[in-house]
Amino acid sequence: MTLNKLGVWAGIDGLSAAECAAFAQRVEGWGYGALWMPEAMGREVFSAAAWLLANTATLVVASGIANIYARDALSAAAAQKGLNEQSGGRFLLGLGVSHVPLVEGVRHHEYGKPVATMRAYLSAMAQAPYASLAPATAPRTVLAALGPKMLALAAELADGAHPYNVTPAHTHEARAALGPGKLLCVEQAAVLESDPAAARRTARRFLDLYLSLPNYVNNWRRMGYSDEDFSGGGSDRLIDAMVVWGDENAIRRRIDEHWQAGADHVCVQGLGWTALPDEDLLRLLAPTP
């Protein structure tokens, strides 16, 4: 698996299947190492990944994040092996425990203790039988890890971590927690806009959902933010820390800060005026001109 240092994180449920394939091909042509996509209330992430892998040649497709409450561990292990066997090792499994409102309110499951539940799930995946052809190389798994306990579990039982909505300071702490030799794949939201009011409007629209999810709020508290930062759509301090905005140089500086802090891979989420990825920003940052 050639992940490269820079990738794209994109919500593409608003695109048709053909448009998703064309977008993945553009991302691949721009030279990005991976395309990350979420799993929430849109497409099922493994079937979506199969489609994108079938329509690309070198691009890594990563789940950001596959919800462990969406399927049992045997199904996840089989999908991970099958996708990697089919694609020549180009699928990276990102796994996460999701959030209470989505697990209990939407999926109607009981939300377990996050670390213990993930530990049991990973153990079950490791022991799952698989009667088909194995991929040529061992598939890799990264965890949606924010706090110290989940990062420690990622270091122990996974190949790394995929933190989301974090700062370079958090990336530094995550690298220390993971230790050397583990993948640290960090998401960074970005707005190509130099007007502070306009940029922050876009950023607040993006962060609105995450301000309602306890796992993110709790992590921001660990990072030094307080109730004042979470009210009114988020303080400027919180907004500016989570979403980099400005010109190309400002965005590149933030990406470089993550690399300097220990990230192996930064996946950029280009935010625009719609829910679709800002392709102008992605073309601007493209590793291949």
> Which descriptor suits the 3D outline?
globular
Strand content: 15-25%
The CATH architecture can be named as: Alpha-Beta Barrel
* CATH topology tier name: TIM Barrel
- The fourth-level CATH homologous superfamily is Luciferase-like domain
* DSSP E strands, number: 10
Total domain count? 1
* Major sheet: 8 strands, parallel, barrel
What's the end-to-end separation, in Å? 23 Å
Mean pLDDT: 96
The assigned structural class equals alpha/beta
Instruction: Give the strand order of the largest sheet, numbering strands 1, 2, ... along the chain.
Output: 1-2-3-5-6-7-8-10
Uncertain segments are none
| H/E element sequence | EHEHEEHEHHEHEHEHHHHEHEH
State the name of the first-level CATH class: Alpha Beta
Number of DSSP helical runs: 13
Helix content: 40-55%
Radius of gyration: 18 Å
Structure description:
With 289 residues, the protein is an alpha/beta fold. It has a single domain (6-189, 246-285), classed as TIM Barrel, CATH 3.20.20. Helix content is 46%, strand content 16%. It has an eight-stranded parallel β-barrel with strand order 1-2-3-5-6-7-8-10, surrounded by eight helices. Helix 2 packs parallel to helix 3 (73-87) and helix 8 crosses helix 11 (236-242). It is globular and about 55 Å long. It starts with 5 loop residues before the first strand and ends with a helix. 46% of the residues are buried. The model has no long low-confidence stretch (mean pLDDT 96).
